[in-house]
Amino acid sequence: MQSLLAAHRLTASLPADGVLTVDLGSGARITVTTADDGGPLWVACAGETSVYDSPTAESLAAADLTAADVSADLDTAWATEAAARYAAEAERGTNLSDLYDGSLGCVLERAFEAHGIPIVAYPGSTVPYSGRLVVLPDGNDIALWDAVHTTASIPAADYERFGAAYRLVDDSPRYSEVPEEEIPLVRTGSLWGDLAILIHTVKAWRDAVS
To answer: Which of 35, 79, 94, 168 could form a disulfide with 89 if both were Cys (CB 3.0 to 4.6 A apart)?
Structure first.
């Protein structure tokens, strides 16, 4: 975990067994802990903010997965990504209740661009910071949104859960009629944990068609 955090330019100290802390320039501290119980299972927080919590059996089942589908390496990667995304926004000073700088659309955009994956607004959209698209190398795309509000234009502070769908753009004469296949997403109950899993899920779909 320490080396993975370092790859994201986060310096972690080890104050105790199974505990890592990352002190940010903003004054925030991320504490990452693990318990070796069929895992390791990672938990990360910054004060009272939940940064990551390993998915429960129920949340995995909702995405048609079991604990056996989530290796220790994958759980570690998700936890690291969540910490990195939280750190990036904390260092930026993002006000998550701000509709512009701190909207879900802005947070999504910056998170994917950190991985070299550009995302764009829906074609023809007249609403600033509305839902986003990841354009795939084969001409199709993945739509991203906040699944409750069906838009990414809400402040990230009001986040409930993400949604994503694979869209067969080339097979439809009109963009509004593009057929969609919803992509099952694992929920952690945390904006940052869910964002980390969303990133890894979309990257896997993108790599599959590259």
So the answer is: 94
